């Protein structure tokens, strides 16, 4: 198979979808690998590293798309890439179609095969290609939240963990999945008072058993969320419905109950966000203020720590990429039901129900 890895061109996206180690393994198995020049620089990999692994370097993104049967990326194609995608070409990347009608329409029009990292399933129903970036994003949410709580950054001016004689910040985490667990662990480790909310009692029981005493688990409901808003310092949105838009757990009206200088970090923003006032931002311009509340809504948070993120992501994606390369996408998805769940758009049709429902195509 001919596999192409273009340089990511989304704002401040420094990750790369294929490492020199993965390149070497593919080349050893007889596959051709094209890498766009400087694609790995942001993650610490030089062009020489890829050349030594057997890749062929190409100057432009246009060449990579034109020469490759399969495109492996980190983030969804952006508008300037839409015309480069060819009929029958396999794209293996994060798509998050439910939150972007223009992207979905462009991929339908291209008649490409779009296999989304975020909906590939493991036999136990977990999302193995979403987990590593969710772990990174959950931990980063607390780092960024702590930063923007500082007065020079527009925050209320509170130290997350407090000091002796001064109470710590209050952190509410909405969602007890991978992102929520990691966020709660980080916030608790820094000494914050943490409230972790979810709608699964079984999950809350598990989280209550494994998390430290400064984390309280609370059943998630509008009433319970509202009770915390007037005293919360940092809210982390960590809600996920695989492949579908996230529900709005905090509305614009509810936001007005929060204090000026409090902070929201919506990790679910690439799925539409679970806080109504959240819209995607970039690492270049990461925040904005609504009703006195600082919003951090960067849609590719792990891109800020590309060394960690690239290795964590490719550890998870490469076994699936290898299946696709060795068998072709049709046979690979026929033999692996979990990989087949990653098929979202195939030859002009939406084939993943939650995406169709989110876009009104069901």
UniProtKB/TrEMBL annotation:
Gene3D superfamilies per the UniProt record, alphabetical: NAD(P)-binding Rossmann-like Domain
Alanine dehydrogenase/pyridine nucleotide transhydrogenase NAD(H)-binding domain residues: 149-297
Active site: 96, 270
Matching InterPro entries: Ala_DH, Ala_DH/PNT_CS2, AlaDH/PNT_N, AlaDH/PNT_NAD(H)-bd, NAD(P)-bd_dom_sf
Domain (Alanine dehydrogenase/pyridine nucleotide transhydrogenase N-terminal): residue spans on this chain: 4-137
Domain of life according to the entry: Bacteria
Binding sites annotated in the UniProt record for NAD(+): 134, 198, 203, 220, 239-240, 267-270, 298-301
Residues bound to substrate: 15, 75
GO cellular component terms listed in the entry, alphabetical order: plasma membrane
Keyword annotations: NAD, Nucleotide-binding, Oxidoreductase
EC number: 1.4.1.1
Molecular functions per Gene Ontology: alanine dehydrogenase activity; nucleotide binding
GO biological process: L-alanine catabolic process
Family: Belongs to the AlaDH/PNT family.
Name of the protein: Alanine dehydrogenase
Organism this protein belongs to: Neolewinella lacunae
Lineage, broadest ranks: Bacteria, Pseudomonadati, Bacteroidota, Saprospiria, Saprospirales
């Amino acid at each position: 198979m001919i596999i192409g890895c273009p340089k990511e061109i989304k704002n401040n996206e420094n990750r790369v979808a294929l490492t020199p180690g993965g390149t070497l393994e593919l080349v050893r198995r007889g596959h051709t690998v094209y890498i766009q020049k400087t694609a790995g620089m942001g993650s610490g990999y030089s062009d020489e590293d890829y050349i030594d692994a057997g890749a062929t370097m190409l100057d432009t993104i246009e060449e990579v798309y034109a020469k490759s049967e399969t495109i492996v990326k980190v983030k969804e194609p952006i508008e300037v890439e839409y015309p480069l995608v060819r009929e029958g070409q396999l794209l293996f990347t994060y798509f998050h179609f439910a939150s972007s009608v223009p992207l979905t329409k462009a991929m339908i029009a291209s008649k490409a095969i779009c296999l989304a990292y975020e909906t590939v399933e493991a036999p136990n129903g977990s999302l193995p290609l979403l987990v590593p970036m969710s772990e990174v994003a959950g931990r980063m949410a607390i780092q960024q939240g702590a930063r923007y709580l500082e007065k020079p950054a527009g925050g209320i001016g509170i130290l997350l963990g407090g000091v002796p004689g001064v109470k710590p910040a209050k952190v509410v985490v909405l969602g007890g999945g991978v992102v929520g667990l990691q966020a709660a662990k980080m916030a608790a480790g820094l000494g914050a008072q943490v409230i972790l909310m979810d709608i699964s009692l079984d999950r809350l029981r598990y989280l209550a058993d494994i998390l430290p005493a400064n984390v309280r688990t609370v059943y998630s409901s509008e009433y319970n969320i509202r009770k915390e808003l007037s005293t919360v310092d940092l809210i982390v949105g960590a809600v996920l419905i695989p492949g579908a838009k996230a529900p709005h757990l905090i509305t614009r009206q509810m936001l007005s109950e929060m204090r000026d200088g409090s902070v929201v970090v919506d990790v679910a923003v690439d799925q539409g966000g679970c806080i109504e006032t959240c819209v995607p931002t970039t690492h270049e311009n990461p925040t904005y203020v609504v009703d006195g509340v600082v919003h951090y809504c960067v849609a590719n948070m792990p891109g800020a720590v590309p060394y960690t993120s690239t290795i964590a992501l490719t550890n998870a994606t490469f076994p699936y990429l290898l299946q696709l390369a060795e068998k072709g996408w049709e046979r690979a998805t026929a033999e692996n039901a979990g990989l087949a769940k990653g098929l979202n758009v195939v030859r002009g049709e939406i084939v993943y129900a939650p995406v169709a429902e989110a876009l009104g195509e069901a």
